[in-house]
Every structure is written in structure tokens, then in C-alpha cells.
Amino acid sequence: MASRLRLLTVGPTPGADGEPTPSPGACSKAAASGEREGEAQRAEPRRRREVTDLGSGSEVVHVPRFVAREKAWEWFDYLDKTIPWTRLPILVFGRWAPQPRDTCYVADAGLTDLKYSGHQPPAHSWDEFPVLKDILKAVHEALPGSYFNSLLLNRYKNGSDHVSWHADDEPLYGPTPEIASVTFGCERDFLLRKKPTKAQGASGSGEAARKRLKVAAPQQQHSFLLKHGSLLVMRGYTQRDWQHSVPKRAKATSPRINLTFRHVLT
Ligand SMILES: O=C(O)CCC(=O)C(=O)O
């Protein structure tokens, strides 16, 4: 592998405690609480932080137990019931189709509008959702020096809901955006793959290029299992050089809510 992984243990985040991590496959409150009893003696070090160097100035930070499990379920329930989720049509390869997940957008007043896939979501105010301010505070405390002023929320109702390969490389985020992503509910795979080089992109049609990307070299792909209460941060040139996705998964039988905090340049 060309990338390097560093493990760090960091100080407390509000709400995080020393609970054990559920085993892979945990997808509901009931499953998680059953596993908790069985795994009480296998607690990992508190708030382990894994740093993956993707090379060329790109980096991913993964904190599997960012929020304590009970607190994370409390926040999940609030978000599931309170957020005005919508599933609007988006433009995919020239055709309109329902977005394969529910979304909502929250941002500071006066920022440049977010536009993607032919869609311009209305920006809600943080004041409408006090819990989002609590989560934002926890993220800011975990990432000193970072500042986020907007949030895209995603709700995946089950394993059919997904997000396809893309990069959050819209100009309103600048050349090196930092994106902090918090997961609640059903764990899902989060994949990263290197974007094609200019030579690869120039040597064939769009469809051919997509097929080639599916067989990218193993060292140019990474996979993270995003569990309930976890935090994943993409930094540096990750959006310029890499694409990410949350693929369909038959084993994901209950909802997942994901919050991606971003900084819109002002
Ligand atoms: O749900 C996730 O973990 C990723 C969401 C995402 O890629 C996006 O909102 O751009």
C-alpha cells in the first residue's frame, strides 16, 4: 500500500465515553445493546483516531467512537423525527431521477448557494435545530482550528439508499476543503478511490473511463466501516484527487443518518 496509517489516542469529546465498539454488522439499537453486554471486556482505547495518509497532500482521519452510543441514539432519534427530509429529483448522466437518499441542507445566512446535480437545496437556519448546534460544537472541539459553516444531511432508509462515486469539489468550498462526516444508526461502508489521471480520462469515452475506474489498482482504493457515533474527516487535496461513495448494501436493514459539515468560502 502506498498510504500510511497512524493511530493516535486523543482527549475527550463531549458525549464520548469508554464504551466498547459493536462488532461489524450491528445495524439497530437492539443489535447494538445485545453486543454491548457480550463485549464489555473488549473495550478499545478511548477515542482512537486513525490517520490515513493518501499521498500528495490528501488525508483521512477516522474516529470510530466520536460520540457515546446512547448520546448518538438520542441524536439519531431527534434528527430522524425533526429534520424536514426531502427526496428531490437530481440530474444523473443527463436524466432526472429521485435522489437515492433523503437530504436536507443547513447553512449560515448569506453564504453562496450550494448547487449539485441540477439541484439547489434551500438553506435552513441552525436556529431551527438546536441539536445540530450541539453536534457542530462537538465537531469543532474535536478538530481545533477547523471551522464549518454549512451542513448537508443525508438519511439512508435502508441498504438500497446510497450515494454514487463523486467528489465534493464544488468551487464554493475552495481548493482544499475539509469535510467532517458524522454517522448515526446503521453502519455502512464508505469507499474512496483515486480519480483517473488526465491520460486515462483522455484515452476513451466516459463509459470506458468509468469501467476502467472500477478496476483501479488495489493501492488506489480505501474502505472505512462507518459505525454509529463515528467521525470521518477528509482533508487536503482529497476532493481534488479522490472520489468517495456509500454503495448499496443488502445487509443494511435499518436507517443511517449522516451529517457532512463543510466550510463555504466567504
Ligand atoms: O453518507 C456519507 O457518509 C457520505 C455522504 C456524501 O458523500 C456527501 O454528502 O457528499
TrEMBL record:
2-oxoglutarate binds at residues 154, 156, 166, 244, 256, 260, 262. Substrate binds at residues 93-95, 169. Residues 1-54 are annotated as: Disordered. Residues 34-44 have a biased composition (Basic and acidic residues). This is Fe2OG dioxygenase domain-containing protein. Belongs to the alkB family. InterPro entries: AlkB-like, AlkB-like_sf, ALKBH2, Oxoglu/Fe-dep_dioxygenase_dom. It comes from Urochloa decumbens. Pfam families: 2OG-FeII_Oxy_2. It comes from the Eukaryota. Residues 147-265 form the Fe2OG dioxygenase domain.
